[in-house]
Known about the structure:
The protein is an alpha/beta fold and 143 residues long. The chain has one domain: 3-Layer(aba) Sandwich (Rossmann fold). 43% of the residues lie in helices and 17% in strands. It is built from six helices and five strands; from the N terminus they run αβαβαβαβαβα. Strands 2-1-3-4-5 form a five-stranded parallel sheet, with helices on both faces. Strand 4, helix 5 and strand 5 form a beta-alpha-beta unit. It starts with 12 loop residues before the first helix and ends with a helix. The relative contact order is 0.15. The N terminus is likely disordered.
Amino acid sequence: MEGTAPPEADQPLAENFRYFLTTMNILLVDDNTFNLKLLRKKLEDSGFGVATALDGIKALNAVRTAPPDLVLLDVMMPRLDGYRVCKLLRMDERFASLPIIMLTSKAGEEDRMLGLELGVDAFILKTADFKEITGVIEKCLNQ
């Protein structure tokens, strides 16, 4: 598949990750398609393999189908929010140590505490610059 364009959001994850056999794979989860496409492009340009999901249920299915090396997860989403996705992943021993970074516009201490209780590895504000985002991703992947 080398030399072909990567699949778009919501295509089967197994196909999505087969494209990126030699790199670290990130599952990017956000219900905002503009944010999803923008961040996906930047991450791919930085050398990461990126699969996407538009909501929490699709994210859980994606992780179970083709486990990524890291999940970058929006907090506020329809159907199943990021906190519940994190909790369900942490309850499954196969994904108990999967790095999860919450990408959020909520910066409150209560939100961070809830995330930490559920097993979130790091928080990134949606307003963060891309260098900060990749720095946190690299740190989580190297732990």
